[in-house]
């Protein structure tokens, strides 16, 4: 008994010690969580120096709406990088605010980390830069090297400074796709394709080994528009003769040889850049305009992010006009249900439109569309929501970004007016369904499938059996019906006959310029013009506020992002993780992306209005 009591006392002591450790760890964990919460909720307002240069340093691709992926953002922060996305609106807002701000003496564009982006987005930033230059303040673009996207923005500056070891790489626009038919045949997969529209070429990647004649014809047309617009904008900005960019591309191999491979010197000779300067030399030059920061030993500067925080914080304390024009961003693939920012959900985007519909302060709605399409059912849900807003007496104006094609055009067709950039890719009015079956693949492995059903359609939808004639007939009938509905919706929205819509449909992609001539869009112009048009149609008298209605970042997502980011940073600092997170298999990314597209499509009937037309513009 005494032995048992002694053992019990020892266990009791151990338990008390462990319990106190447990409580201490819980307290520590709570303190850490509260610390993360405070960090997430606390936002200090940066101070704008009395004399500074605004530094615009876009990272990654320009987007209408940043995709919210806490883990991806955390990985970017932990590796010292970024989430590889820069929101277009932030860049334009910063430049516009700086134009009339006496504290901002110059604008500096640091373009090394800007990824290939849609030309229409570049044009909107270019317009903002040119407007900024009207203030008389200098705009300096600097980079170690400049690719085609980066050079477009650099060309809009009053001065382009290139590193002496840099280059300007311009190669035009291209449109290449992978064709998977041979690989699919070798794997023994049967890909059953049902489509409506001669030019609806998305499914060609599964059924062909090369580009079809119809796709080649339409692609040449809109690629030509993009290239013409790019050359025109750049030559005008740099004061070059027409055709100078085409000549630079055509003669670059021989011209580079003539300067012994010195690409920076060639760019200077061709007047593509103003001067060759190292980054340190550029810093000293900018310091002459804005002054020197003694802490950084460089020029006095404020980043775009800090400047926007200061400007927007100031606006929070101002009284806003009662009337508002709501802007709803519809960016990404169109999918069913509720989707996070960076994708368009049939339910989630409809909810945003419903919020605008019932808000008495909202007098008009502008829907900013940047989408190649997706689920036909989700597209129909969103279009119905657009029409409900209009029936409530509030005009809806669509502003198209880089592309608003297929389902992206479907949701746009019901607007009062449609604005597009000259380089917007739109139209692609057509639908398809893709159903793979794997009975031949299984047979190669010695797997056979057999059985019985009570009706000719029993077992329909199995991927281990070939489609029956009845299934094929049903799918094609459904696709044909969906296409007829698409034509009808466009005809009603655009006030055209179905026959006239069909002439410009058939799945064909059009540039914004051509779409304007064909009646698929009403005006050429950017988001600002669309907002002004919406206010005019709504007959708003006096000032009005522009209100972005967006799904809020959930508390859980934000907290997870903070926790993951901190954990990854600690892991990196402790040596558990490398300084940069590698992503293997980049060569297979196109194949992975095709598989990812099919995996995320979730239309209840398997019918899609989608255009694979984002790559060339981006």
Short description:
This protein has 618 residues and is of the alpha/beta class. Helices cover 47% and strands 17% of the residues.
- Weakly predicted, low-confidence segments: 1-8, 77-82, 561-589
Q: How many discrete domains?
A: 2
CA-CA gap between termini: 81 Å
Bulk shape: globular
CATH superfamily of the largest domain: 2-enoyl-CoA Hydratase, Chain A, domain 1
Question: What's the alpha carbon Rg, rounded to whole Å?
Answer: 28 Å
Kindly report the average pLDDT value: 85
Q: Let me know the largest β-sheet.
A: 8 strands, mixed
What name does CATH use for the topology of the largest domain?
2-enoyl-CoA Hydratase, Chain A, domain 1
The number of distinct β-strands equals: 24
Give the fraction of residues assigned to helices.
40-55%
CATH architecture descriptor of the largest domain: Alpha-Beta Complex
Our count of helices gives 22
Beta-strand percentage?
A: 15-25%
- Report the CATH C-level class of the largest domain: Alpha Beta
Question: What structural class should be given to the helix and strand makeup?
Answer: alpha/beta
